[in-house]
Design goal:
Helix content is 39%, strand content 18%. The protein is an alpha+beta fold.
Length: 187
């Protein structure tokens, strides 16, 4: 992912109280996801690998007391993910490194990996963060996801405009169709 997109994502999320997740944040977020969704989630090792490769996948929100209260994860994808996304068989539980867009790489799509909030404020921040990523950071790219809960499905359809794709995926066309990024050309 171009460096300016990565930096803008960090700044946009910070404005909502979400910060780039540390390994500790990711471990806590993984435990939270396992509790809320069940075992059909990416492993902790995969989450740490994807965060290390992309540099900007997982974001966390903590309470004033330091408790994890929200998490948001999206994966910027390289052009190599295109055929898998089109067929609907993209493996969100263990995405191959070749399909991930790292810092300095051009992203061709992004995948909504997960979001959770334990308080009304954190839920609002996480949903707002997902929408900012869709509209500002990755606004020139198509969006894909798989809903793990009925609440997530409502957010994807009602707030983010996602529609049924193939293979259980949902997708949304780029938010901006002019082909221009809100950030200008890649750095």
């Amino acid at each position: 992912m171009p460096v300016n997109r990565l930096l803008h994502a960090r700044q946009a999320m910070a404005g909502l109280g979400l910060r780039l997740a540390t390994g500790e944040d990711i471990a806590e977020a993984h435990a939270l996801a396992a509790h809320m969704v069940g075992p059909a989630i990416a492993s902790l090792e995969v989450m740490l690998r994807v965060q290390a490769h992309t540099g900007c996948t997982c974001f966390a929100m903590r309470s004033a007391e330091g408790r994890l209260i929200g998490a948001l994860a999206v994966i910027p994808l390289s052009a190599r993910a295109g055929p898998s996304l089109a067929r609907g068989d993209f493996d969100g539980l263990s995405p191959p490194d070749a399909m991930l867009a790292g810092p300095g790489d051009a992203a061709s799509a992004f995948y909504g990996w997960g979001m959770a909030g334990l308080t009304p404020r954190s839920r609002a921040a996480v949903v707002c963060g997902a929408m900012r990523l869709q509209r500002e950071i990755y606004g020139d790219l198509p969006f894909y996801a798989r809903a793990a809960t009925s609440e997530g499905e409502r957010v994807l359809h009602d707030r983010m405009g996602a529609r049924a794709h193939v293979g259980g995926l949902v997708s949304a066309a780029p938010w901006r169709t002019d082909g221009a990024s809100a950030l200008g050309k890649a750095a």
